[in-house]
UniProtKB/TrEMBL annotation:
<protein>
    <recommendedName>
        <fullName>Haloacid dehalogenase</fullName>
    </recommendedName>
</protein>
<dbReference type="InterPro" id="IPR023214">
    <property type="entry name" value="HAD_sf"/>
</dbReference>
<dbReference type="InterPro" id="IPR036412">
    <property type="entry name" value="HAD-like_sf"/>
</dbReference>
């Protein structure tokens, strides 16, 4: 068999690149507080955003879905903690955001701009301003790949075709992968503008028809596992907080098993079990 007989897809943020903590704590959280009226409860707002987007089963979710979940959780938390009706009422309702998320094919700035042009929604204008502010803050960072992740991409390319699948904006992905010489190892990038991870994988399978046991997705979020399961491909988890150990296992056991056809079955199930145990579904303040 040749490299054309295998495909390895890599998620980017928090998986290949060590930037999830920076981008959420230094970029998303301050904008979330500033644009959605949470200045007098910054610690609670930070904990909510970080739980939804970093430390739970929704880690890695699309930014707009993450915003909706965070606003919903903030309303429920503040009401439950007796903050008071006068306080919870200042958290903006989000019917236009909810409706757009429910009906949009792609959740991206471009799609949001189209909806604003159609509806003129002031609520969605604020959401777009928030998203653009996040992108501005992200430009201030210079993310680095996990050292073993960069080696893993190069090793995968020796025996397989390589693609990037991510919910980050495409321009940021091209910048980050290009800055570290990794973009040339890939055959292209699927980004936020191209739909969900499941959309990405289905498109890849149409472009490169291969059996599911010859396609491997490496990711750090439960949504990545769900996308792999839905499309019938294999999944290797990069466990949050244990990234270097995960990449070491990928290099020395996961990838070799993939190439010799011994990944599916018991090994895959054990990986999934360890991954699912690493991220909780219930917020700590509800425990």
């Amino acid at each position: 068999m040749t490299s054309d007989d295998y495909l390895v897809a890599f998620d980017s943020d928090g998986c290949v690149f060590d930037n999830m903590e920076f981008k959420h704590k230094a970029c998303f959280v301050p904008s979330f507080i500033d644009f959605f009226g949470l200045q007098d409860l910054p610690l609670q707002a930070r904990e909510i955003w970080e739980f939804v987007n970093l430390y739970s089963t929704t880690r890695g979710i699309n930014r707009f879905r993450g915003l909706k979940l965070s606003l919903d959780l903030a309303r429920a938390r503040f009401a439950g903690e007796g903050v008071g009706a006068e306080r919870t009422s200042t958290i903006p309702p989000s019917p236009d955001l909810d409706s757009w998320i429910a009906g949009a094919r792609h959740l991206s700035n471009a799609s949001l701009e189209e909806e604003i042009g159609r509806s003129g929604s002031e609520e969605l204008k604020n959401v777009l301003a928030w998203s653009l502010d996040v992108n501005r803050r992200l430009l201030e960072g210079s993310p680095q790949p996990f050292p073993l992740a960069a080696r893993a991409v190069a090793r995968a390319r020796e025996g397989a075709r390589v693609r990037v699948v991510s919910q980050a904006p495409g321009n940021a992905l091209r910048r980050d992968w290009g800055a570290h010489g990794l973009l040339d190892l890939t055959e292209g990038i699927f980004s936020q503008e191209d739909g969900t991870k499941e959309d990405h994988l289905r498109c890849l399978l149409q472009q490169t028809p291969l059996p599911g046991d010859r396609v491997l997705l490496a990711g750090d979020a439960p949504g990545d596992l769900a996308a792999a399961t839905a499309t019938g491909v294999l999944f290797f988890p990069v466990i949050p907080g244990a990234e270097e150990g995960s990449w070491e296992e990928f290099l020395h056991e996961g990838l070799p098993r993939f190439f010799r056809g011994a990944f599916a079955g018991g090994y895959a199930r054990e990986l999934h079990r360890r991954f699912e145990e690493a991220l909780p579904a219930t917020p700590p303040w509800e425990g």
